[in-house]
Specification:
298 residues; alpha/beta; 4-stranded parallel β-sheet; 4-stranded mixed β-sheet; globular; membrane; monooxygenase; ubl conjugation; FMO-like
């Protein structure tokens, strides 16, 4: 008898988990609290509690070749870097190709996941869900949590003495959707992650003036690199990886800084990171787009 697996969430991780379960002959059931697949990459105009939120113009930081699932390349006519609507389209193609929708229970919230009384011998879990006000309980042999980690914003207001006297707006980047409505404003964007940079550039076309505040600086890397190739095609090669593993750290540091400064001198703009190699490594993070320390203020 096939083992039953509960998959929580129908975003990128949930969909691939479903496919892997089916490939292995398991019996998966996916619980998705919203009405559709896509998770983080499904843009909605309004912020929803318990769900990741993106702004309308979000484009991937990694190329389609580096972003696709290993067993399912993206369509050739897709651009090198994808708008969030294209990522969602890819998920739909993937789900249809492997007939995954039949395993998903939409508008179903997982209320609790608990070990069964006989867990030590059975290894089973009790999962309680709610669908349109009706609670249900089911037993599973395994649980895969695929709900993501960009749901709760970090907004440390205690770090801004006097914020209660500020007359303008202040909010986390999670609440930002598009630049309309910021015309004529003076804006301070705190943070220099991918979201902060995107939002600052976008707002600069509407607002009177936009400032960016950064504590540690950051390497500014364009999506397009040497020869017009996507940056990750150039950076993530076997040869580059081998060099990073065998070269002395001081030489590696010099080479990387030289490469990062080809476009412009970070020192001249006060952007040179204090912990240079660590910050460079962070550029490899696929989900750097939603760094939790970012917030937008007016």
């Amino acid at each position: 008898m096939a083992k039953k697996v509960a998959v929580i969430g129908a975003g990128a991780s949930g969909l691939t988990s479903l496919k892997c379960c089916v490939d292995e002959g398991l019996e998966p059931t996916c619980f998705e609290r919203t009405e559709d697949i896509g998770g983080l990459w499904r843009f909605k105009e309004n912020v929803e509690d318990g769900r990741a939120s993106i702004y309308q113009s979000v484009i991937t930081n990694t190329s389609k070749e580096m972003s696709c699932f290993s067993d399912f390349p993206m369509p050739e006519d897709f651009p090198n870097f994808l708008h969030n609507s294209k990522i969602l389209e890819y998920f739909r193609i993937f789900a249809k190709k492997f007939d995954l929708l039949k395993y998903i229970q939409f508008q179903t919230t997982v209320l609790s996941v608990k070990k069964r009384p006989d867990f030590s011998s059975s290894g089973q879990w009790e999962v309680v869900t709610e669908t349109r006000g009706k609670e249900q309980s089911a037993v599973f042999d395994a649980v895969m949590v695929c709900s993501g980690h960009h749901i709760l914003p970090y907004l440390p207001l205690e770090s801004f003495p006097g914020i209660e006297r500020f007359k303008g707006q202040y909010f986390h980047s999670r609440q930002y959707k598009h630049p309309e409505g910021f015309e004529g404003k003076h804006i301070l964007v705190i943070g220099l992650g991918n979201s902060a940079s995107d939002i600052a550039v976008e707002l600069s076309k509407k607002a009177t003036q936009v400032f960016i505040s950064t504590r540690h600086g950051s390497w500014i890397v364009g999506r397009i690199s040497e020869g017009g190739y996507p940056w990750d095609h150039v950076f993530h090669t076997r040869f580059s990886s081998m060099l990073r593993n065998v070269l002395p750290q001081m030489l590696l540091k010099w080479m990387m800084e030289r490469q990062m400064n080809q476009r412009f001198s970070h020192e001249n703009y006060g952007l040179e990171p204090q912990n240079k190699l660590v910050h460079l490594a962070l550029r490899e993070d696929y989900d750097g787009r939603h760094h939790q320390e970012e917030q937008t203020k007016d």
